[in-house]
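ok trying again, last paste got cut off:
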Amino acid sequence: MDYRNFALVLRIYLVLTVTDNILPQLANIHFYLLYTRKLNKLQAKGISRILIWSNNKGPKYSSFLP
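nice, full thing came through this time. structure:
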């Protein structure tokens, strides 16, 4: 087996693993801080939904009652 192909496959696997595991959690923290910081502005505009990344499930909408 060619070692360059193995390194490329390993690199792609690591990138996908990091993307699947770490980025959704960072997105959760980011949107939580965004929601808590701009709560009054969001409620004033009547926006009651915020995009939340649940781990390994993709984007979901969570409703917050004003």
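cool. The helical segments are 3-37, 39-44. Residues 3-63 form one domain.
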